[in-house]
C-alpha cells in the first residue's frame, strides 16, 4: 500500500506537505497529492466540497477521507459529496482544518487515507 504524504505544517494560508511544494490548499491521497484548485469543480464555501473534489481521492485508492472545513469552519460539504463517499464505503472525517490535519496524519501511518485541506477560513 502506498503511504499518504504527511502534512508537515499548517498555518493560515500555508501548508507544507511531504514531497510537495508549499501551498495553500491541497488534495492528498495514498502515494501523492497536489494543490487543490477550487475552480476545477466550481467549489465555493456554500454548498462546499463537491463530488468532483473528492473523486480524485477515490480514484487514487483512498478508503478513508478527511475533509477540512477551513480554519473558521466556513467551508461546507455538499450532501451529494457525503452520499458519493457513503456509496463507495469510505469512512469520512469532517473537522476544522488544524484538527483535520491531526486526524489525517494519525491515519496516514497505517491507512489508505486521502484528504482535502483548506488553509484559510
Automatic annotation (TrEMBL):
<keyword id="KW-0963">Cytoplasm</keyword>
<dbReference type="GO" id="GO:0005737">
    <property type="term" value="C:cytoplasm"/>
</dbReference>
<dbReference type="InterPro" id="IPR034096">
    <property type="entry name" value="AAMDC"/>
</dbReference>
<dbReference type="InterPro" id="IPR007523">
    <property type="entry name" value="NDUFAF3/AAMDC"/>
</dbReference>
<dbReference type="InterPro" id="IPR036748">
    <property type="entry name" value="MTH938-like_sf"/>
</dbReference>
<protein>
    <recommendedName>
        <fullName>Mth938-like domain-containing protein</fullName>
    </recommendedName>
</protein>
<dbReference type="Pfam" id="PF04430">
    <property type="entry name" value="DUF498"/>
</dbReference>
Amino acid at each position: 500500500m502506498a503511504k499518504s504524504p504527511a502534512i508537515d505544517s499548517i498555518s493560515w494560508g500555508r501548508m507544507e506537505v511531504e514531497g510537495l511544494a508549499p501551498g495553500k490548499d491541497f488534495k492528498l491521497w495514498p502515494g501523492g497529492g497536489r494543490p487543490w484548485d477550487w475552480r476545477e469543480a466550481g467549489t465555493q464555501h456554500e454548498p462546499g466540497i463537491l463530488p468532483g473534489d473528492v473523486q480524485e481521492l477515490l480514484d487514487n485508492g483512498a478508503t478513508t477521507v478527511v475533509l477540512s472545513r477551513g480554519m473558521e469552519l466556513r467551508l461546507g460539504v455538499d450532501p451529494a459529496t457525503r452520499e458519493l463517499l457513503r456509496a463507495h464505503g469510505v469512512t469520512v472525517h469532517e473537522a476544522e482544518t488544524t484538527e483535520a490535519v491531526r486526524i489525517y496524519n494519525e491515519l496516514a501511518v497505517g491507512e489508505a487515507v486521502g484528504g482535502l485541506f483548506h488553509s484559510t477560513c
